[in-house]
Amino acid sequence: MNEISPMRNEKCRSSWAHKAIIFTLFSFLIPYHTQAEISDSLIVRQMSEYGIHFTQGNEVKLLMSGKEKFADMFEAIRHAKSSVHLEYFNFRNDSIAGLLFDILREKRKEGVEVRAVFDGFGNDSNNQPLKKSHLKALHEDSIEIYEFDPIRFPWVNHIWPRDHRKIVVIDGEIGYTGGMNVADYYLVGTEQVGEWRDMHCRIEGPAVNELQHIFVRFWQKLTKEQLTDSKYFRGREAGHKMVGIATREPRVSNKIMRQFYISALDHAKDSVKIVNPYFVPTPSVMKALKRCAERGVKMDIIMSSKYDVPLVPDVVYHNLRKLMKRGARIWRYRPGFHHSKIMMVDGRYCTVGSTNLDARSLRFDYEINALIIDKDVTRQLDDKFIEDTRQCDLLTDEEYKRSRTTWQRFRGWLGHLLTPWL
């Protein structure tokens, strides 16, 4: 067996010491934000290989509540000059949707084009759906609104997939995406779950063109109308943030969100913070979460204290218990249902979007997430996360054993076997 001689070994140590000194000096010469971009380059390169187009020159405004989202978005729509495009899982037939449609009617009178899409199952599954009479009235007011995959007899056509995306593009210049549909409960909560928390973001810049392309493809799929005019794609440099738009589309980009979560978790070095309501990850994502926690990465996850879907809470507890055993800290949000879908990694980059950490979102539905490669935006979400933990209880091993009955634990184990369909 070849051995390294003492002289050669000394030369190696000297060489490495020399490189370390150069690297340290070089680090001081590089602006801190540039170093952050270098540390994030891996996730950008990997996701670019999966078809995500990252653009520089964007501005991102986080909208931390329903009140912030609707106030900001409605004001932007009121100032629209050319077009308003909306794609939602559902427009709940209540006062906030009523106000939105009133604003859209006024914009149509001014000559602004209005196009809207909603999901058939999303509409029929909420307790205040838009009915045929509402759609007829909107069409009579020249608002083009269409339902994706309406549920019809024998009522099995809409099992997979569903359009769960949330996209708004105004004048081709301002875009919105995140976790919120259009409903009053984002403002006032519900009797069942209490406060209904969620997050959204407003984007200006080249990334808005990506949002518009996604909407335009879907619009053509539904209506056969092609929207190619340059007036729909006016996203120009508006800031200095890098943003990539990840959209999961059946048979087109099936694995994109799974790959993002796996890559982000596998390359996290310091910390991961997650808020996601239906924490029932697919096996590959769950394995990545375990690997991440086992490496000693500081993992904090906020779960809800109340849920709107039966069985899911038991499975969520079952999954989070596994991560607790590997060192993750689990926080239960006392005020109610935290419906946000966000993740922050190493204080360097984050995602805000519609994707739940469950098989339906990761394997079947149309979904969308903004991948924001920016330290400042990530810090804002990190700060909000820490603020939210002040309204949470830290789930300890003792508390888990005390609060979860044997029957609930069994249901969690049994339910996790149904992960591919939850």
Low-confidence stretches: 1-39
Cross-sheet strand order for the largest sheet:
4-3-2-5-6-8-1-9-16-15-14-10-11-12-17
Helical amount: 40-55%
Percent of sequence in beta strands:
15-25%
Would you tell me the overall average pLDDT? 90
What does the overall shape look like?
A: globular
Radius of gyration: 23 Å
- Number of DSSP helical runs: 15
Comma- or semicolon-separated keywords:
15 helices, single chain, 422 residues, 17 strands
Q: What layout of secondary structure does this protein have?
A:
Layout: H1 6-29, H2 32-49, E1 54-63, H3 66-78, E2 83-88, H4 95-109, E3 113-119, H5 120-125, H6 132-140, E4 144-148, E5 167-170, E6 174-178, H7 185-188, E7 195-197, E8 200-204, H8 207-223, E9 241-248, H9 256-267, E10 271-275, H10 283-294, E11 298-304, H11 312-324, E12 329-333, E13 336-338, E14 342-345, E15 349-353, H12 359-364, E16 367-373, H13 375-389, E17 392-394, H14 397-403, H15 406-416
Parallel strand pairs: 2-3, 3-4, 7-13, 10-11, 11-12
Antiparallel strand pairs: 1-8, 1-9, 2-5, 5-6, 6-8, 9-16, 10-14, 12-17, 14-15, 15-16
Helix pairs in contact: 2-9, 3-4, 9-10, 11-15
Task: Explain what you see.
The protein has 422 residues and is of the alpha/beta class. 43% of the residues lie in helices and 22% in strands. It has 15 helices and 17 strands. Strands 4-3-2-5-6-8-1-9-16-15-14-10-11-12-17 form a 15-stranded mixed sheet, sandwiched between helices. A two-stranded parallel sheet has the order 7-13. Helix 3 runs parallel beside helix 4. It starts with 5 loop residues before the first helix and ends in a 6-residue tail after the last helix. 45% of the residues are buried. Mean pLDDT is 90; it is low at 1-39.
